[in-house]
Design a protein that fits this description.
117 residues, mainly alpha, 62% helix
């Protein structure tokens, strides 16, 4: 419906539309940055996060996954980087390459750079 200019509610039933990929990506990035700050301050490590931080990271991954499945290049790149560096997930070069390639194919410069390396 967003393709047709409908932004907030369904024109037939008036129920709110689910968030689009941009909003999902923004929310996921906000959650991820809170966890990253916790790790950067030395209050936790990526492999041993407190339960609340792990829930935030899992929620960020879920939101990025939904946005990436909708073809949003920034979310695909973010997922690729999480798998590349093993931040809160098991490090996987294969999964990283898959997500980075999807993003790079859409012209995302950061994904192209990381995929090239």
């Amino acid at each position: 419906m967003r393709k047709f200019g409908v932004k907030q509610v369904c024109p037939l039933c008036r129920s709110p539309l689910p968030p689009g990929p941009e909003k999902l990506n923004d929310d996921a990035t906000r959650r991820y940055m809170q966890v990253a700050r916790l790790v950067d301050r030395g209050d936790a490590s990526w492999s041993n996060l407190p339960a609340a931080a792990q829930r935030d990271l899992d929620a960020a991954m879920s939101e990025w996954q939904r946005a990436a499945d909708e073809g949003f290049a920034e979310a695909q790149c973010n997922l690729g980087l999480m798998f590349e560096y093993g931040r809160g997930v098991v490090e996987s070069d294969e999964k990283a390459a898959v997500w980075l390639k999807k993003s790079a194919d859409q012209g995302h410069a950061k994904a192209q750079h990381n995929l090239g390396i």
